[in-house]
Amino acid sequence: MSDKETEFTEFTAVAERFIALANEIKSEGKPLTLVNAALMSASATYSTYVAAGNQGYLKPGGVDRLVDTYRAQLANIQDIKRKAAESSVKNASKDN
């Protein structure tokens, strides 16, 4: 396995752990909107820490870069979900 493949596998596993934790919190009866907002807040807090340290903060340009990074990740996820949905429709039509 190449370094890039290993990194992607590790990335996916960590992302799945966050999703599993969010689902666990949801199963405790917490509203989806609360779980989502808390996860986004935690991500923003951790991203600020990564970029600026524990005592730092992001200047407007740093916020813009973080928003751009998040936007690109969101677009990537939507592309993956769109392709999966299209593939599902194609497979369903082949079965009929």
How would you characterize this protein structure?
The chain has 96 residues and is an all-alpha fold. Helix content is 85%, strand content 0%. It contains three helices and no strands. The chain has helices spanning 3-27, 32-52, 60-95. α1 packs across α2 (32-52). The longest helix has 36 residues, at 60-95. The radius of gyration is 17 Å and the shape is extended. The chain starts with a helix and ends with a helix. The model has no long low-confidence stretch (mean pLDDT 94).
Care to give the gist of this entry?
Helix content is 85%, strand content 0%.
Give me the number of helical elements.
3
Largest sheet: none
Average pLDDT: 94
The stretches of 5 or more residues where confidence is low (pLDDT under 50) are none
Number of strands: 0
- Give the CA-based shape: extended
Helical residues, percent:
over 70%
Strand content: under 5%
Summing up helix and strand content along with how strands pair, one would put the structural category as mainly alpha
In quaternary terms, these chains amount to: single chain
End-to-end distance, in Å?
38 Å
The gyration radius over C-alpha positions equals: 17 Å
String of helices and strands: HHH
